[in-house]
Design goal:
Blueprint (H helix, E strand, L loop, with lengths): L1 H13 L3 H13 L4 E2 L4 E5 L8 H14 L7 E5 L4 E8 L7 E9 L4 E6 L6 E3 L9 H18 L7 E3 H14 L1
Antiparallel strand pairs: 1-2, 2-3, 3-4, 4-5, 5-6, 5-7, 7-8
Helix pairs in contact: 2-3
């Protein structure tokens, strides 16, 4: 029993090893399980969490111990620099511009949770849906839409969401100029 406990503790301490976590992120991306979000972050569907490399499963497992059940989560985002695991609850994931209804963020360093339900004025549009499209035509369309939105609002390449109200305002102003 003591050996199993020591092995478990040793494994938990390896989850703080940034190099191992980054390597595991690279493996998940190469395997098509996860998608890059900048140099130090990935995101993936919750259904794919059991297919992740061991260190990422442990990382997500630690977050779920602090946060709880992940059954209703749509997308999980891992920021390896900040040791954050974010869970996105998305309305109609297959929509052209899916809306994030809720986001929970687990800070593994501080062992804190920030859980936000977005009301109508705070809801965000998920700008990384193109990564999950399996049809090449659908992926191209989604990528073009997301890139156009980023361009209109002057967002960086790896920004994965924008406030819905901000998007509506920018689109309204653009339509008036046409």
């Amino acid at each position: 029993m003591a050996k199993a406990k020591d092995a478990a503790l040793a494994y938990l301490f390896t989850l703080r090893d940034e190099v191992r976590i980054r390597e595991a992120c690279g493996q998940a991306v190469e395997a098509g399980i996860a998608h890059r979000d900048g140099d130090r972050a990935i995101h993936f569907r919750r259904d794919d969490k059991d297919d992740l490399p061991l260190h990422l499963r442990g990382f997500v497992g630690c977050a779920s111990v602090l946060y709880g059940d992940l059954d209703d989560v749509d997308v999980i985002h891992i920021d390896t620099d900040k040791m954050l695991v974010s869970m996105f609850y998305i309305e109609n994931f297959d929509a052209k511009l899916p809306i994030i209804l809720r986001m929970a963020r687990v800070d593994l360093k501080r062992q804190t949770i920030r859980d936000q339900n977005f009301d109508a004025s705070d809801r965000r549009v998920f700008l990384a849906r193109s990564a999950y499209a399996t049809d090449p035509g659908d992926r191209a369309d989604r990528t073009m839409i997301e890139a156009r939105i980023r361009s209109l609002i002057n967002l960086g390449q790896h920004v994965s969401s924008v406030k819905y109200t901000e998007l509506v305002q920018v689109l309204s102003e653009a339509a008036k100029r046409m």
